[in-house]
Write a structure and sequence with these properties.
273 residues, TIM Barrel, alpha/beta, binds orotidine-5'-monophosphate
Length: 273
């Protein structure tokens, strides 16, 4: 089964578009985890234990594991093993490079770590992401409109009468021969999200920017899903994994994850049934 079909099936089976971002910033991990041999691993374990039934995916931003060196790599490897089957594991490293280097990046994430999907940067063109796309059972999320302010610097520039991000989307559509490509579209850019969804009705969109970055959840669901109310992967990181109080950590994380899932699902009910 190709990646996009697999993702859709998981979203349908679990009735969830929620992806939790395990951006386990060592400087924000509660003190109670600091005594353990590998605080990032134990922190992730306690989150996965209480949220795995609520999510369609977990996304690991690799920077937070690279920062802690060998321990970070061990935390990454072991955290991935803790995730039950039927949940997509996304490596967020925004990769892409000349062909032989990109091949190493893809092999590392897909073969060594066994991630199901990765984020890639399209700036270097097709050959820089082709090695990722060639893994047809793995997903490739191409940066299209990012959630940050700087996205305006290049992504919105008009090129041959269209914003650059639209060229990226059209190329992604053309390159999607294996049905395993998706786009990254920030929840902080609703007009662009709406436009992209009309261009690419069936393609999965990985949508970060909800919670800490203050993206509008209702509009994100209204404009970000395909016709059937699926194919948006709504990533929430800090607003779930770092509750305002670390008393009853697992209970607080669970409540936050339930809150986001229930908000997502009530918006889906409103706009897609
Ligand atoms: P929170 O803001 O804590 O929910 O985390 C957002 C996550 O999504 C981080 O890992 C970011 O690196 C990532 N992200 C964005 O915030 N904006 C983007 O445009 C793209 C990504 C990404 O590719 O995941």
């Amino acid at each position: 089964m190709n990646f996009n079909q697999k993702l859709l099936k998981i979203q349908q089976d679990k009735n969830s578009l929620l992806c939790i971002g395990l951006d386990s910033d060592i400087s924000r991990i509660p003190e109670s985890f600091k005594k353990s041999e590998n605080p990032q691993l134990e922190f992730n374990r306690s989150i996965i234990q209480v949220t795995h039934d609520l999510v369609c995916a977990y996304k690991f931003n690799l920077a937070f594991y690279e920062e802690t060196g060998i321990k970070g790599m061990q935390a990454l490897e072991k955290s991935l093993e803790l995730i039950p089957d039927g949940i997509i594991k996304i490596a967020d490293g925004k990769r892409g490079d000349i062909g032989n280097t990109a091949q190493k990046q893809a092999d590392t994430l897909f073969k060594l770590f066994n991630f199901d999907a990765a984020t890639v940067n399209p700036y270097m063109g097709f050959d820089a992401i082709e090695p990722f796309i060639n893994f047809s059972e793995k997903g490739v999320f191409i940066l299209c409109v990012t959630s940050n302010l700087g996205s305006k610097d290049f992504q919105h520039l008009s090129v041959s009468g269209k914003p650059l991000f639209e060229h990226v989307a059209l190329k992604a559509k053309k390159w999607n021969q294996h049905d395993n490509i998706g786009l990254v579209v920030g929840a902080t850019h609703i007009a662009e999200l709406k436009k992209l969804r009309t261009l690419l009705m069936e393609m999965p969109f990985l949508i970060p920017g909800i919670g800490a970055q203050k993206g509008d959840l209702e509009k994100t669901i209204k404009y970000g899903c395909s016709d059937d109310g699926y194919n948006a992967v709504i990533n929430v990181g800090r607003s779930i994994i770092f509750p305002s109080t670390s008393n009853n950590f697992q209970e607080s994380v669970r409540k936050l994850a339930e809150k986001y899932l229930s908000e997502i699902n009530s918006c889906r009910k409103k706009y897609y049934t």
